[in-house]
Amino acid sequence: MKIPITKPSIKRTEIKYILDAAKNGWGKNCYDYINKFEHKLSKYLGVKYVIATSSCFGAIYLSLKALNIKKGDEVILADINWIATVAPIVHLNAKPVFVDIDPVTWCVDPREVEKKINKNTKAIIAVHLYGNICDVKSLKTISKKYKIPLVEDAAEALGSSINKRKVGTFGDFGCYSFHGTKTITTGEGGALVTNNKKLYRIALKLSDHGKNEKKQFWSDLIGFKFKMSNLQAALGYAQIMRINQILKKKIKIFNLYKKYLVSKNIFLNPTKKDEINSYWMPTIILKKSLKIKREHIFRNLKKYNVDSRVFFYPLSILPMFRKIKKNKISYNIYKRGFNLPSYYDLSENKIKLISKILNKYIS
Ligand SMILES: *Cc1c(COP(=O)(O)O)cnc(C)c1O
Hints:
Blueprint: H1 12-24, H2 32-45, E1 49-53, H3 56-66, E2 74-78, H4 83-91, E3 95-99, H5 110-115, E4 121-127, H6 136-146, E5 150-153, E6 161-162, E7 165-166, E8 173-177, E9 190-194, H7 197-207, H8 230-241, H9 243-260, E10 266-267, E11 275-276, E12 283-286, H10 294-303, E13 309-310, H11 328-333, E14 337-339, H12 348-361
Parallel strand pairs: 2-3, 2-4, 4-5, 5-8
Antiparallel strand pairs: 1-9, 6-7, 6-11, 8-9, 10-12, 12-14, 13-14
Helix pairs in contact: 1-8, 2-8, 3-4, 3-7, 9-12, 10-12
Pyridoxal-5'-phosphate binds next to helix 3 and helix 4.
């Protein structure tokens, strides 16, 4: 049997709510689970406003649109990233400005962000990679100093926190993903969160075709359709009720890898004082001194039916962009990085087995 990288944890409550939504969630009940899910998520995150969306891509798009990002504007983000973070910038005809990452957090380096700020800079997007946490304090300082909004992409870091405050709630907007591979899932889905009432109202209106709240079938502007369905929200509601249980398991899995991976030639996700890393994906970075290629390790994991996943590429290496080799850390680290299986039902014995294979080939 294959050991996959991720798969969701679906229990009785999930099935119960999905069936209930399928049977009863129509007509006057058609927003019930959406409202419940948004409410529960806002309580969990400690944030005032939540909009459940069809994806995190949609949430990021809405955030930038609500911040009025348009042609000619520049948006700064880390070079190492998932494509969904940059796509909305491009769709809005704005210019993505890729900067290098911090070698410890693997997230955007605030010093590099500040260097790139000019009069066209209209937003900063900070992605919390693999559960790791960006240097939020420095980013907030820069955001305030230059009056440039900060959007947090916390798709991979639901549950990560700094001094008990959840990541995704520090910026002007926070975005989450509930794709099937993420910490909790709605199949496809996401959320946009903010503490700013004005921004919330703009984003909410944009998310549903600019509909007027008072006048039926009347739109005041051209918007989008980035809403989550009640069926998806039913699944999300069951999952957010179990969030602490799911996170506890994620952290346990990471700590078991930490225990069993004895090699001194690797780095794992960093953990800092006063922070909780939700370890969405336990990730290995091979030390530079090590001469083995990660592909060699992948081949050997495959022999034992263990799935692995490459570290994100620098976005600027993709054919749509121009290479920025100056982003030295990004261009070096990705070749040495990969993710390990960490799904909810992964047993300690399997973690032992995976670690044993890795210990053998990384020595
Ligand atoms: C998964 C992910 C997204 C996109 O999420 P979707 O819900 O699939 O749109 C965006 N950013 C990051 C960092 C992600 O990992």
